[in-house]
Structures are given as structure tokens and as C-alpha cells.
Amino acid sequence: MNTSSVRSATLAAALFFLLAGCGKPEAVVRVGFVGPLTGDQAAHGLDMLRGVQMALENVKSQGEILPGYRVELSVLDDQRSPSQAVSAAKRLASDPTVVAVVGHLNSSCTKPASVIYNEARMLHVNPVSSNPEISRQGFDNFYRVCPTDDLQGPAGARFAVEKLGAKKIFVIDDMTTYGRGLANEFMKKAKTLNVQLLGHEGIAQGEKDFTPLLTKVKSLGADLIYFAGMFPEAALLIKQRRELNVPASFLGGDGLYEPTLIQLATPQAAEGIYLTTLGADIHQVPKAKQFVESFEQRYHHMGSYSSYAYEATRLALEAIHRAGRPERTAVLLAMKGIKEYPGILGVHTFDEKGDTTLRTIGIFTVRDGKFQFLEAFEGKS
Amino acid sequence: MSSSELFLQQVINGLTIGSVYALIALGYTMVYGIMQLINFAHGEVFMVGAYLGLSVILAAGLQAPAAGSLAWFLFLIAVAAAGCAVLGLIIERVAYRPLRRAPKLSLLITAIGVSFFLQNAVMIGYGAQDRYLPSLLPAVTWGKGAVTVTPLQLMIFVVAFLLMVLLHRIVYATGFGRAMRASAQDPLAARLMGISVDKVTALTFALGSALAGVGGVLFGSHYSTVNFHDGYLTGLKAFTAAVLGGIGNIPGAMVGGLLLGLIEGLSAGYVSTQWKNVIAFAVLVLVLLFRPRGLLGERVAERA
Asked: Is the predicted pLDDT of residue A1 greater than 50, yes or no?
């Protein structure tokens, strides 16, 4: 055997193993999901993931999504941190089998991640990041299935003034994209409603002692505290508000809609607080009945954001199905053709920004240690 | 709510968190005094204390205040103190003693390593989400006029005060305390006098860690939630308090802790919550500019 034949044999072998290594690409197409699966908001993230998984199971059981391809999830954790969100987004963008993404809970995560998804020309269906600025970036790949804070904030302000008779309001937010945005929308509306805004302060996520701030609120004689933020900080505010005997009533946004809030704040302190939610009580939506029943049967409670994650995932899968090809651009094009989609939350049509035309804001209170639905506002900003 | 009532309430708010800072700061300062080491794992010992309390509550199936709750609460404190003392001994034996002759920088790195280890161990063991820690003391509010205080706040003041008095007695009125002060001033001379500096160092770790453990239970019960990264921010604040009072100085740590709590409370209450850390650290910088060794600064002559 001369050297050249050895060389060519080696080359052939190398080539063979190289090809075998790559193989024929396995027929898999993936949908990404990113949310806070660890950290203090893990309860929300897990609820969303369960909704996503259930959507995939249900759609699969109704027939093949993409002929010849197995549809899988690619699940990543953003720990509610914007920087983790961006690195998760980059990982999904660099994986060619991922054709669509459902994701991010926090607006502060969704906003920077949406830039990555847009550059990757990947369909991005967002379940619950309600900050209105996200859809104003002009991204044609962005869709959102929940109403936004320019509806939620004003609905909260109207409820506070018209139903609770608030005259002196103190506004607190958590200085995130979501919290600050919601607080500003609330105040914009409140200013037109003849109430006195006593002040507006930010607290940092992860802090625990809010007694100095609440003492100040008490001394100013506020009759309502509006908090735009998430449930871990809300729970501490609610508990400390009671310990300091602050007489003001308490109203928050959808970030509070998580049963852990009542446990962390203690049921006694949480009794009688109010919150606005993105959409009405899911238990009273006829189309969602089947989903709610099977979800509660499996997990013994209804996650606050599960239905949105479910809806967003079904939309993404519908777009993949209609595209008929495992390509991002085809999926994006197919999504543009979806009009009047009959989901469990209602019939979605998406405006030019990608926001749903569903505009209902729900109002809940806590009674006997449980969330109780009060009424629905048909939002107009 | 009159302005004097407002001020009094803000002082109570500040002293509550300040007492916890002081308990943790004592551990930083004692270890620094004896080893010239900033034990960055100390904040995590504090956090483990809170989780030990949680474990007892879960194991005993305690839910809410009931008859005998006070006894349980004291038991919780005792368990956290004992558990953290043992943890302190282990940390010293495993992570610091083998490096006794190494440069101080190596010790600092192992301290950070221990800190990461404890955070992640607790995260794996207990989960990453906030855990609910029920308060065993009645959730009532005692108030005179507009000023309120909860039984738990009183408990924090009393426990912190008693422990500080006890520590002061130990350090200034026992043989061990004398050995500890001697080892801090001059380890070589102490050894020549027949003091086992290794043993004294280990016991100092145990003592400081026990105080942090008690702080953890008080902190966790007061805010009713615990999380594996709670030790980071609170530990950093307590370290700041130790520096403010004069690191290495035991009364300094007590004063620094209470003072830092007060500054935070008053600046959050009278200026703005967003600015409270800025103001607290600005005060620290000012104090250090004029008194580089802290308020009750360690006397350098003693060590020279």
C-alpha cells in the first residue's frame, strides 16, 4: 500500500465519519419557551411552562403538525433577569431547528429578547408581557395574546376612583420595564380623574424592608396604594402595611395574580386587596372550560398565566402547521395570514403592531384567602 | 400621624433591621479581629440560619401562632444558633485552617467559594423560589396613637440586645474572652502564654456564626419569606455596618449595625426609597474619610 492510497483511505474514512456524525438531519422542529423557571418568580414560570406543554400535547393529539417532523419544545430559564433572557434568546436564535418562540414573562426580559428574535426572523408569540412599548418597536415577527398596560393602568385608575372612591393615591412601582410602565399609565389616567397623587416611588426587586416607605405613605394620609410590580415584593408590602396599620386600601396589577402572594403576605393581611388582571376570570370564559378542567385535574390549581402561555403556543403551532415547512420565514408568513383565530381567551385578530384585539381587563379581590373575580372592564385607552 | 409620631415609627423601623445587621456584623468583626479575614461566607451562614428555622417549622408541622408558639420560637432560635455554630466550625476547619499560612488573598477567594457553595447547596436542597416562613408569634399590632410595633419586632430587639450583652460578657469577663482578645492582639505572644490560638479561632467562628444564625431566624420570621440569595445583600449591609463601626471592634459592630439600619430607614422615609442605599453608602464614605478606622475604630497601637 503506497502513501497516497493510505491518505485517500484515511480521507474517505474521515469523510464517512464526518457525514455519519452529522447524519441526515433528524426530522425535528422546535418551539422555544423561555420564562423564569428558577428564582423568586419561578411559580409563574412553571405555570406558563405547563400551559405550553399542554398546548403541544393537545395539538399533537389532533393530528400531525408538520408532516414528517416531530415537534419538540426547547425550554430555557431566564431567571427574570434581562441579561439571562438575552443569552437564552441568542441560544434559540442560533439553533436552526427552532422556528418559533413563546416567551418571557417579564416585560424587561421580553423587550431586549425581542430584538434577537427579530434579527433571527423568528416568530415570537408573547403570552403576558404587557408593556405597550414592546410592540411599538416595529417588529413584524412580534405577536402578543394579552391586553397591554395602556389598558390595564387606566382600568385600575378608573376602578380606584369610580368604585373605591379613592381621593389621595400613592403610587409605588418596582422600577422594571413592566412596573414603571404600568405605574405611568395608571397615573396618566388618574390625573384626568380628579384625584390627588401624593407621590410615586420605586422599590428594588429583592429588597425586603418597605416599612420606612409605608410609614411615609401613612403619614401622608393616602387612602389608596397602587403597586405596579410582581407578587414577591407585593406580598411584603401588603404584610408590612398591615403591621404598620396603614389604613389605605391596596390595588395592584396582574403581577400580583398568583396564589403564593396570599400565603407570603398572610391571608389576614391580603384580605380585601384589589388587583387588575389581563382578561376576565378564566373560569367564566366558556371557550376555556375544557382547558381549565383538564389543567386543574392534572395540576390541582389554575396557574394565573397558564392560559396565555397555552394560547400563545397554540398560535405558534398553528403558524407552523400552516407554513407546512420547517423554515422561520415560512412560519412568519403563515402567522401573518392568521385572522380571527378562535382561541380559549377569545377570538384573536392582531393589529399592525401584533397586539391582540382582545381588550378585557379583569378586577379581582382577595376574599377568605382566595382570589375572587369582581368585574371586567372593556378597555379603551 | 404627627411628625413626632412619624419620626418615632421610622426609628422603630430602622432599629428592627439595624438589630439584624448588628447581629451579623458581630461575626464579621470578630473573625476580622482574630484573623484579619473578611469572611465573605458569613452572609450565607445567616441565610442558612433562616433555612434551619424553616426546616424545624416544616418538620414540626407548625403553621401559625398557637399555644406554646413562644417556646417553639425560642427552640427555633436555639437550633439555628447551634446549627450555624457547627457550620462555622466546619467552614473554618475545611476552608480556612488549611490556608492559615497562605497569603490573605487566597483566604478571601476560599471565602467567596464557600459563599457560592452554600448558596447553591441551599438552592438545590430547598428550591430556588421564595419559601414561606410562618411567624410563630401572634400577627397583632400594638400601637399607641399612630405608632405601631409587632410582637416579633419586640422579640428582635430583646433577643439582639440580650445576645449583645451576653457577647460582651463573654469577651470581657471570661477566660475564653481574654484568650480571644490576646489572640487578636498578638497571636505569637498568645501562643507563648499557652493559649491554643487554633482553638480560639475555631470558637470565634462558632460564636459569630451562631449570632448570624439567630439573625437569620429573626429576619426570616419578620419578613415571612426566605430565599437562598437573601444572605448576599443583607450580608453586604452587615459588612458595611462592621466597617462603619470600625472593623475588628465589637461594640463598633453593634453601633454600626443599628446606625446603618437607622440611616436606611430615615433616608427611605424622609427622602426616597430609591435613594436609601445611595445615602447609606455616602454616609459610609464620609465616615471613612474622617475616621478611616470607623466610628469606634480599632486602636492600631494594640496590634503593633
From this structure: no
